[in-house]
Amino acid sequence: MQIPLEELTITPGSACQGCGAALAARLAFKAIGPNAIRHRVPCCPDSTTAHPSASSVFESGGAMLTGTWRGLKAIGRTDVQVVGFFGDGGTYDIGLQSLSAAAERNENIWVITKDNEAYMNTGNQRSGATPIFARTSTTPVGSVTKGKQMRKKQIAKIFAAHGIPYLATASVGYPEDLIAKINYGKTVKGFKMLIIQSPCPVGWRYDGSKTIEMARLGVQTGIWPLYEIIDGEKLKLNYKPRELKPVTEYLKPQARFRHLTDDNISLIQEETAKEWETLLKSDELGRVLL
Amino acid sequence: MIGIRIHGRGGQGAVTASRLLADASYRDGKFSQAIPMYGTERRGAPLVAYVRIDDVRVRERELVHEPDVVIVLDPLLSKKQSVASGLKKGGLLILNSSLPPEKVEIAGDIKIATVDATKIALETLKLPITNTAILGAFSKSVGYPTMESIEKSIRNQFPGRVGEMNIAAIHQSYEEVTPAVQATHTEPVVEESDIAVGGYGVLKDVSSWRVFTPIIDLDKCTGCRACWLFCPETAIQWKDNRPEIEYHKCKGCGICVEECPVKCIAFERVVA
Amino acid sequence: MVGNKATATAVKLARVQVASAFPVTPQTTITEYLSDMVANGELDAEFVNVEGELSSQVVVQAASRVGARTFVCTSGPGQLYMHHPMHQTSDNRLPVVMATVHRGNKGMMPDHTDLMSQLWTGWMQFYVEHNQEALDTCLMAYKIAEDERVRLPLVFGYDGYVLSYTAEPVEIPDQDEVDDWLPPYKAMPSILPDEVLPENLGGGSGGGDPQERWKKHHEAIVNAKDVIIEVNESYGKTFGHSYGNGLIEEYRTEDAEAVLVAMGSLTGTARAAIDRLQDDGLNVGLVKLKCFLPFPKEDFQKIGKKVGAIGMIDRNVCLGHGGAAYTQIRNAIYDLEERPSVLEFYAGMGGKEVRVDDVYKVGEKTLKAAKSGGVSTSTEWV
Fold first, then answer.
1. What CATH number should be reported for the domain whose range is C248-381?
2. Quick check: is B194 in a domain?
3. pLDDT band at A113, cuts 50/70/90?
4. Backbone angles phi, psi at C256, to 5 degrees
């Protein structure tokens, strides 16, 4: 697949060195193309793109995209794509209610989430997207508890259960896959969602030059599987190695997991393997197994 | 009262330096105030912090616009004329630099003292984090806070082994800082851009963010486009089937260096 | 026609393109009337049934930004839930029109605390007396809000139950005449990809002097008074109804020694009380305060020069502070060399019924203050 050479980002932006989300925005909007309105809710500054853009209150992503789409419909400009590029806070947590309602109404919009697994804009506080045991500034490593005690919210399954026409996961480590998914979504009318794992060197505590490596390891260990779900039913795994790498390869280089005990790691390994089995079975059957 | 401005980068600990300085001054019986840069801090982005030290409680809440002393934590920022902006006539500039003050090309009716804080930090902490090391140079050049108070502040902030390593750093910088001399350079260098501090939106030039600079060896380049593909800032343009780095967009993250399959991108440290 | 039907009818006449609401008593039937109109093809609009009021406000905000005429409505708790995005709508200078069917913050029954809790959101605020005025005000609201000299959102409120579910005759203007009077809406500046100005790509940097934005916003509301007066006059000429000068309306104030000031449906009851007072030889007039934001300061200064006492009947109270209109009127008359007494009466709070007799007594007390001379103050719960 040919990745378009044309850049739609206006750079340099104000993201940190080695920001995964800045790359996610750059790649996603390359594929979206220029005929779009891009909406924002509060999040880290990823990449500014050459689109008309507006922002509203944090909790309102779904409503904002809805209003824009319905307004375009009312004035006869249904050619314009409506894209929300939100963080995990705006998707998993404070924005979930309004996004769920927009998904239920099957609004003709794009929701692209750059998932960096915590509230990075305010300095790495835990979110519903933070994985189990990860250290954040609100799930510190203390003498009583060490890191986050709850699992990561399975947002893809939540939205799949809405029966939306297109949902996919992606990773900045696999740009061709990411862009192919947006290209496919562009042919679909209705609610489209792409959740992109976007490593954050500051919050995850690894060197910024290793962002792509972290993203790839996430996929190769099964921590962040790449798949797509059509109409909330048909599932397809897009990356199926013969064997997954052990999760330690992903966990060890990130200092947010440095305090993990062998038991902690075993638990993550077991749960990852179990989820992978389910996905393989789903892929084989061609339908979602929850 | 004296006002101090500290220049550093996101991740170098300028805010911690400002708080240690304020805390140590208070331990010496003075009043003080440490002000972080308002807004968000980005890893690698230049930023500033401010300190006021006085004999009475500091009341004013405005930023320090005309400092008596400017501290620069970063060796690259230490080459910039703009770190001296607003510095009072006869004021003191303490630079993290391996150069003697006479060789520093920053002009003005100011005094300059230098200390190779990066070298000290690498020797004592094994990391190029210069926020504590520079405090010893400050104490020596300005005459306060006392080294005893800075030690106490550091032990309070960093208990255990880390604190002792930092204390070794301040003592070394106390010994190695040069005497302050009148700036000898007369013509201010006209800079292409001001120091770009963090913030939201599109910035003009982020060259000052870089500690390491990627340099592509085009003879070895196979034209695979990995560097272009993975650059978050579009700093690598693809022209005539070859990569070309637009350095004003490059923050020096090193992703291109990591991702080049034939390792034809060097990552060179620019030293002062 | 009940008040909610009058409002829905005005929305249809204004050819609203995107409407959104979450049902809440006593606003609920507006959402049902609009749903019917859209389902029957009477109204060619997108009606978005959202999951809460916060989303309804953001839906119309976003739709207004791309160039659709919008309508949103709510009551009491929904109004409070919607507070956050109301700031963005006004900050972005979007001419959204909203109807608030008043429901107080204590219980189901009406008072004005729901809308008064939004004083800091930067919207224009109107308070409506009867169902005809609800329809007329809704149409005027679009003309005022969309005027290029204003470009601000406008909310008009009317008392739940008292108007929303009470039927009375309402004259409905011809659609053709409305179309002639109210031109289509266009967004400024456009955010369509093929029309957006290059400097607005990326959504701007958020730089500049933030205080300047507050200053301009404040000035825009204050300066909207001229447009409000103009639109009220033009509506009167075209459709035969107008409301005082658009900001306030004086009733039987000629030679009045004292005036009462009322807002919303209470004004009608007060009119009846004023008639009785004057029949009994008590020279008390009435001022209806229709436009609360921008506050018609100059009008109250003129009235303050004429009378010895002003009795403000507030259907709201800023707890620990006082009635919103009362404090504004006292503020306005401070500039006068000779000041009348200003008395505060709280009435109709939590939907407590206000009878003609109650207002009659308020009139007597205010007149007494006018006659006694000097400046007196008092606070009374009616």
1. 3.40.50.920
2. no
3. very high
4. -70, 140
Q: Which tokens belong to C362?
A: 């308020």
Three-state secondary-structure class, residue A114: strand
* C-alpha closest to that of A179 among A16, A23, A51, A10: A23
d(CA B50, CA B32): 11
**CA pair distance C233, C249, nearest whole angstrom:** 13
In this complex, is the C-beta atom of C208 within 8 Å of any C-beta atom belonging to chain B?
A: no
Residue B128 lies in a domain: yes
B142 and B223 co-located in one domain: no
Residue A100 has pLDDT above 80, yes or no: yes
Out of A47, A172, A209, closest to residue B253 by CB? A209
Check whether B186 has a pLDDT greater than 90: no
Domains of chain A: 9-285 (3.40.50.970)
Q: Which chains touch C (3 or more CB pairs under 8 A)?
A: A, B
For residue C287, the model assigns a pLDDT of 98
Residues in chain C with pLDDT values less than 70: 204-207
Q: Residue B59 domain-assigned? A: yes
In angstroms, the separation between the Cα of residue A42 and the nearest Cα of chain B is 11
C205 in contact with chain B, both atoms CB, cutoff 8 A: yes
Model pTM score: 0.93
- Which candidate, A279, A262, A21, places its Cα nearest to that of A133? A262
Residues A62, B107: Cα–Cα separation, whole Å = 55
Size of interface A-C (CB pairs under 8 A): 137
Identify each DSSP E strand in B97-144 by its residue range: 111-115
A-chain residue closest to C69, CA distance: A71
Cross-chain residue pair A65–C62, CB shorter than 8 Å: yes
CB atoms B202 and C205 under 8 Å: yes
Residues B212, B248 within the same domain = yes
DSSP A3: P
Angle between helices C83-91 and C210-239 (to 10 degrees): 90
Do the beta carbons of residue B71 and residue B13 sit within 8 Å?
no
Per domain, the residue ranges of chain C are: 3-181, 248-381
List the CATH number of the domain containing B252: 3.30.70.20
Residue B49 forms part of a structural domain: yes
Min distance C209 CA to chain B CA atoms (Å): 15
Instruction: Please tell me which of the candidates C59, C193, C203 has its beta carbon nearest to residue A70.
Output: C59
Per CATH, the number for C3-181 is 3.40.50.970
Looking at residue B47, which CATH number applies to its domain?
Answer: 3.40.920.10
| Cβ atoms of residues C1 and C170 within 8 Å | yes
Round to whole Å and give the CA distance between A284 and A278. Answer: 10
Residue B71: give the domain boundaries: 2-182
Which residue among B43, B249, B259 places its CB closest to the CB of A17?
A: B43
- Could you tell me if B144 and B69 lie in one domain? yes
**Do residue A66 and residue C50 have CB atoms under 8 angstroms apart?**
yes
pLDDT digits (tens, 9 = 90+) for A172-188: 999 999 999 999 999 99
Nearest to A7 among B42, B234, B257 (CB): B234
Q: What's the Cα-to-Cα distance from C286 to each of B7, C151, C295, C346, rounded to whole Å? A: 65, 32, 17, 16
Q: Is A221 exposed, middle or buried (0-12, 13-18, 19+ CB in 10 A)?
A: buried
Task: Name the residue in chain B with its Cα closest to that of A203.
Answer: B43
Please answer yes or no on whether A11 and B230 come within 8 Å at the CB atom.
no
Other CB atoms within 10 A of residue B247 CB: 14
Q: Does B158 touch chain A (CB under 8 A)?
A: no
**Cβ B1 vs Cβ B53: under 8 Å:** yes
Asked if residue B131 and residue B253 are part of one domain, the reply reads no
Ranges assigned E (strand) in A104-261: 110-115, 166-171, 192-197, 227-230, 234-237
Tokens of A96: 């979930």
Assess B200–C contact: CB distance below 8 Å, yes or no: yes
